[in-house]
Amino acid sequence: MPEGPEIRRVADRLGKVLVGREIDEVWFAFDTLKPFEARLKGQKVVSVDSWGKALLTRFEDDHVIYSHNQLYGVWRIMRRGRQPAGRRSPRLHLATASHSAWLLSASDISLWRLDELDQHPFLAKLGPDLLTHDVSVDDIEARLDAGAWRSRRLGSLLLDQHLYAGIGNYLRSEILFFAGLHDRWRPRDLSGTARRRLAATMLDITHRAWRHAGVTNARQWREPMIAAGEPRRRWRHAVFNRAGLPCHACATPIEKHSVASRRLYYCPQCQPPPG
């Protein structure tokens, strides 16, 4: 399932063809949304943003289309007049004079006023987005050390979308590895230096995954593997999905276990448990 960086890249691609352009064709598959087709037609798109795994397409009258890809949804961008191929069911279509954007297979689509988004049942529960909401290392460090967050084990905490939206399973493993932390650590048990390192790593690895299309491995480790012709699945991540393979840093075999009902990969040498 795509995580925050993948959805942010979708928002970026949609923004390139929609933002600042007049939408001259709007189509919804769902009857409850069809009355709004005429209202949105002829307006310009102001922004396309992501928040966790949701997309927010804002129009100049401050209406916002909320959409969530869920497990099977996908956006297709093509030249105007072309139809998406395959068996996926179209759910939403936005067209400019030159391009069409189709959302296929997703069913979680709704229309909101900008000033009402804080009442959205999903968004209201989300923490800030590390890629969209201008979050700083200081912000993350303070949030980790606040309230109930500080007493939660990192293995479950990092997947909690109330903390920060968009961190999924591969990002969790990669963040903990690059921060040098076992999943059983809690923010309150970390030194100030370790907690700040975790905060900086959360921001850095999420942005790296966004910039490099889901790649989180360090350049000095991935580039020799790419040059040697190894497949992407081998060099994409530092630890995730690499159980039994040697750690890039110390050559200890990567291990896998389950935390919060999700698989987690780690280096037992580089990420010792508390105590």
Automatic annotation (TrEMBL):
A GO term, aspect molecular function: class I DNA-(apurinic or apyrimidinic site) endonuclease activity
EC number: 4.2.99.18
Gene3D superfamilies: 1.10.8.50, MutM-like, N-terminal (3.20.190.10)
Known cofactor(s): Zn(2+)
Top-rank EC class of the record's enzyme: lyase
PROSITE patterns: FPG_CAT (PS51068), ZF_FPG_2 (PS51066)
Ranges where the Formamidopyrimidine-DNA glycosylase catalytic domain occurs: 2-94
InterPro entries in the record: FPG_cat, FPG_N, H2TH_FPG, Ribosomal_uS13-like_H2TH, Znf_DNA_glyclase/AP_lyase, Znf_FPG/IleRS
DNA repair recorded as keyword: yes
Keywords in alphabetical order: DNA damage, DNA repair, DNA-binding, Endonuclease, Glycosidase, Hydrolase, Lyase, Metal-binding, Multifunctional enzyme, Nuclease, Zinc, Zinc-finger
Domain FPG-type per the UniProt entry, residue ranges: 238-272
Superkingdom of this protein's organism: Bacteria
Family designation: Belongs to the FPG family.
NCBIfam families the record matches: PRK10445.1 (NF007763)
Protein known as: DNA-(apurinic or apyrimidinic site) lyase
Organism of provenance: Kushneria aurantia
